[in-house]
Amino acid sequence: KDKRASIAVDLGAESCRVSLLRWVKGKPAIELVHRFVNAPREVDGGLRWDLAMIVDGLEEGVRRCASIATEGVRSIAVDGWAVDYVRLDAKGLPLGDPFCYRDERTVKAERSLHRKIGPERLRELTGVQLLRINTLYQLYADALDGVPEGRQWLNLPEYILSRWGGARVAEHTNATHTQMVELYKPQWCREIFQAAELDLACAAKIVPPGTEVGRLSGPLAELPELRNAVLIAPACHDTASAIAGIPATGNDWAYISSGTWSLVGTVLEQPRNGEEAREENFTNLGAVGGRICFHKNVNGMWLIRQCMDAWAAGGRAWTVPELVAAAEKTAKPRGLLDVDDPDLLLAGRMPQRINAQRVRKGYEALDEGAENAPVFASLIFHSLAARYAKVLDRIALHSGKKLKRLFVVGGASQNDFLNRLTAEATGLEVFRGAAESSTVGNFAVQLAVLEGGRDAVTGAYAEQVSRWAGLFVGAIG
Ligand code: LFR
């Protein structure tokens, strides 16, 4: 067996991580080698990511991995948040910092695009939850803003892979979140490209998760440990990767991938795109092994983080563990929030936005000061748990599954207070999975393909991935 190491890169909207998998006496050991904070910022009249900062941080992480892995690095794979993309110029260089999906330019783009192709039709063609953040609306916003046609674009993880020497691809799990891929075939949907007047030639070729896209080249490849590293497209969508990191079998479980967003759903063999799933805006996104992530984006730690930013700006910096502990001691709040109110997806002034909703619903406004943070946090956690329970009820109905178990993975899965509220609200047995489940899934997909899983679109491949995930969940140091 090959004893060389592997590297997983996980791009997050709040932090990016580079992790190393090594084989010590035949057993896997995973170490988070480098983590750095990420956040969009206002530049040139838009909310954008700092691409140079992200790339520098990742390369620093990869170099640190190389310095640890004297046995050499066999493979590298990159996953990350979906929908955002890098535009390339004729030389393949980025045309500028990528927009963040929360930028409000898509409010207008969505309205305008829906006059050319209706939301019902988009939904029917793709099976994907209509979200203003989806790549489709962003590309359309570019066109409205006069970005010239004919510029290639790549979603962020795939961009990083290509920057390091990989072929330009659109990995399927990530591509589905663009809202531009056909539901029953892994191919771009011509009708949508035509309606939005987008150039098909600007989109990269779709490949399944677990595809080798090339070998590392450029300055990083000069390090001897990295010389022969293979670049792999894992499930480039971090959520699909996190779900691939759940080593569960059977048909009685659902998941919450809990981070900035809470993705609440279950894995299906076949998409569900009937009238009810559509009306309720459930999504059918690509999963590993040709399966489907059937879920809904529910708001998540975004609410807490945004409040924390507001309080920190006022001089009181709360940490999440402090807030969780303090929230647990407050009384159960009166009047739950509608956590998916579009206003609460926007950036800034979160305590005020929450109060505005409360007042609209006839509840008293809360004291917005930082000393009242535990009350806000308690309100948010109770409201999230209640929303999860509603969504899970519908998932049981749509999927026909008798749900018994709920796996909570991702950064916010370690919030035991929220897990307890979720167990109470849903009646399900809640399992706390890996905080770094995307990394587990990323490594699992790499090893499944390296160790023989050629045919990456089959259920057998998915089962292999799940076995590797089982091995890796306990291997995180
Ligand atoms: C989670 C996630 C969600 C996607 C949102 C935007 O990090 O990838 O799945 O809907 O971010 O990309």
- Helix content, binned percent: 25-40%
Portion of residues in beta strands equals 15-25%
Q: What's the number of helices?
A: 16
The secondary-structure class comes to alpha/beta
Family: Belongs to the FGGY kinase family.
Protein name: Rhamnulokinase
GO molecular function, one term: rhamnulokinase activity
Domain Carbohydrate kinase FGGY C-terminal: 254-446
Describe this structure in words.
The strands form five sheets. This protein has a six-stranded mixed beta sheet with strand order 3-2-1-6-12-11, sandwiched between helices. A six-stranded mixed beta sheet has the order 15-16-14-13-17-18, with helices on both faces. With 477 residues, it is α/β, with parallel strands linked by helices. The longest helix has 27 residues, at 373-399. The chain is built from 16 helices and 18 strands. It has helices at residues 51-68, 105-114, 119-126, 135-144, 156-163, 172-176, 190-195, 238-244, 275-279, 301-313, 320-328, 350-360, 373-399, 416-426, 437-450, 459-473, and strands at 5-11, 15-24, 27-37, 41-43, 46-48, 73-80, 85-87, 153-155, 169-171, 205-207, 211-215, 230-233, 253-258, 261-268, 283-286, 292-299, 405-409, 429-432. Helix 11 (320-328) crosses helix 13. The structure holds beta-L-fructofuranose. Residues 81-83, 101, 133, 237-239, 259-261, 263, 297 line the site of beta-L-fructofuranose.
Notable traits:
477 residues, alpha/beta, six-stranded mixed β-sheet, binds beta-L-fructofuranose, ATP-binding, FGGY_Carb_Kinase, kinase, Rhamnulokinase, FGGY_C
